[in-house]
Amino acid sequence: MSNTHLFLPSGFIRAPLQNGLGRYVPQLQRITLKFCKNHGGSRGVREFIESDLMNFAKANPGTVVYLKPRRHRSPVMVAEYLNGEREYLSCQEFNRDEVLKWLSYMCTRSGIPVMRFRKYQHTDYPTIQGVWNPFTHQAPEMNLAEYPHETLSKPADVTVTATEQLLEIFKRTQIKDTTDGKSEN
């Protein structure tokens, strides 16, 4: 286990409630691209603005895009979300593909800061069994089998059906009730 989680702020999950139940509401409210018209570090942002900005704006009609040219400053992307959070990202020496990838990343985020999630319960003695998953108790021969496999594809050999088992349980309870009634008389 790494220790990178020690430097992250911790908290509980604060997801936008029921977002996507009726319709999905994008959480990115506005994005501001700050760049220099001359500086070489802003070349990727300028290329993105010239070639891909209109397509991005058409694909994300719920997001306002602002362009802010600044002289002799490194390029910055500022994302503002519906929950009031702001996220700054330096775009120094990015190419236009990286700018597009980071913009799409910002569009899919909820605006909640990256944090280490805490649980509502805590124990001093964690489980020694390990984490369960659906493949925990699978047969080991399934790991090396090539499908379709003759023996693994056959249904289990069942001599008594579930209906017959239920009828048998019902008969036993009736016999038990009748014997209990006779012993009371």
From TrEMBL:
One of its GO terms (molecular function) is structural constituent of ribosome. One of its GO terms (cellular component) is mitochondrial large ribosomal subunit. Residues 37-110 form the Ribosomal protein/NADH dehydrogenase domain. This is Large ribosomal subunit protein mL43. It comes from Ceriodaphnia reticulata. Keywords: Mitochondrion, Ribonucleoprotein, Ribosomal protein. GO terms for biological process: mitochondrial translation. It is found in: Mitochondrion.
